[in-house]
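Archive entry: two folds, one per protein. Generate the first.
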Amino acid sequence: MILQRYQTEKVGALVRDLAGEGEVVSVHSGAVNVRCRHRLLLSLVREPSQMTSLSLTVPRLFRNGAPSRPCLRPAQSVRIEKDLLTVNGLCIDLKHGEPWDGMIRSKDVAGFSLHKLTFMKKTLRTEGKKEGFLAIIGTPDLGDPFLRRAFDVLNRLNGVCGDGPAVTGLSFLIGLGRGFTPSGDDFLTGVLLGEEIMRMARLPDATPHDLDRAEVEERLEKTNDAGRTLLTLALRGHFPAYLVKAVKGVSRAKNSGEIREAFSAAISQGETSGTDALTGLVWYLEKTTRCRDQEAHLPSSTTEENCRGENVDLLKPRSH
């Protein structure tokens, strides 16, 4: 018997691919996660900023900071059909929701340029959360066993800045670290996002390297369901809403203040997920471009203080 019916506002592009039976695995103040086939998580979320291509935005489901009645609990069975999701007397109508895919288009990176990378990195190092993998692009912290392992993996990579056709070895970051999605998984998602940006933007001073995707696919079993879902989507070019928004924001940015604003919003995502994903993005862009030491070529006004406060015009020709 259907007791309550809700309409979705946004429907992830891959949600219908999980048609069949599922199970509620976690209930939070702004999200309900359902484990489906292949250990992939489908999420019912409150805010559009939480979207992935395996999510449904259902704000009316969440009232006063908690899912509304009928009460949703772990272990409840869920049925996913073409246009309906049902669980414990609750029915969510997918039919009229706006499709959302989390993919990057060429228009989204039309304003992306390598000299913006400096401001991206400075914002991240200044505002990023220190508990994750931020030290990879900053001062090494070898007191953290997860970071020690991460540095060991990165130091052993093949194909970065060399002649190899693909970057191999990054898959050993899968499942590494703390958090709902392990830091290594978030970092790898950022790397995949960087690869997508390079492919779309076609930057002139770049030597992109492709990640060995088959290697990553083979090791997805090494992480938890949340990490597996995140990486499965990223491997197919689908990224979380907060990362898509950050990329678009950086592309549109006309000064360092706007870059800082775009990155700051993403940094706040999760415990360290936003910081770790952006760290992976910056690491990849630095490793696969010829202009790695951008600071040496920027005007003297582009200091750390400028990045924090004063807006440096990125469209103004640089003096030499």
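Generate the second and append.
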Amino acid sequence: MQMRKGRLIAGLILILCPSLIQAKVMLVVSSNQPCYLEIVQGFKKNSALSFEEYNLSGLEDEARKLGKRLEGNKPDLLIAVGNLAAKVAKEYCDGCAVVYVAANNVRGIKLSGDKVSGISVHPPAAKIIEGIKTALPDRKRIGIIYNPLYTSKEITELQAAASKSGLSFQAISVTQIKDLPPSLNQLASQMDVYLMLDDPGVISPDTFPYIFMTCFQKKIPIFATSMDFIEKGAIAGFAPQPDQIVAELTAMSAQVLNQKYSSGKEKNAPAKLFINNKIAQMWNFNFPPQAKSQATLIQ
């Protein structure tokens, strides 16, 4: 339904504004990560826009090479998929209309402005707290480690939402990865559920296994806001699915070109509750009936 809705909106805009078909659009993909490629394939299938595609293959050299091309030949719209593509938009496409997606570094690199719009990687704070209460109703003490460079706004919103719901919320900020182990040990006695945001200043392929094992050993379940983290080891989470992200990206890109969308804004893709059955079995944990009825099960 979400995909069809996004395709319909984009198609109507192009029918009403045929000049948009002539607009120069570039889709820049950070790498061949499956989550990026799934978004790209969905966008190709559902968008009526004509565009040039450039895959950076995760290489800074490729980013610089593309940057040189863009210096004298900027597109009308640059769609940035992932962190490295967002960095290209920031460094080489000043003044362009930009739509970013699947990029959790936009605050850190200060990718913003009147012509910059995007799909947030973070669901609304109130929905995250609601998801925790539904999936893990006996857990009352939320803990999180975050990097203020990337997620300070979300932490403030989460603190307010948790307080409103009667839950404890303990957050420790770190700016260097070396501070993660002592911070997690400090936090362990103050929480009974760990909230994992898509924060590049904390979560990486190197740190995720450490956080997962530490929490598992201390019998602290992880609730995540990324499908990737939910599938890798969180017991549950609240996150958007790729088709929902694609629907929002398809509609927003067409609307930005037609100047029908208020640029300079970030939008949340619709998200839903997920429960990871494999991890629940490791914990010997039974979700309450309400969670089972509302959530999508990951085997």
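Annotation attached to the second fold: The two ends are 24 Å apart (CA to CA). The domain at 125-239+273-298 is CATH 3.40.50.2300 (Rossmann fold).
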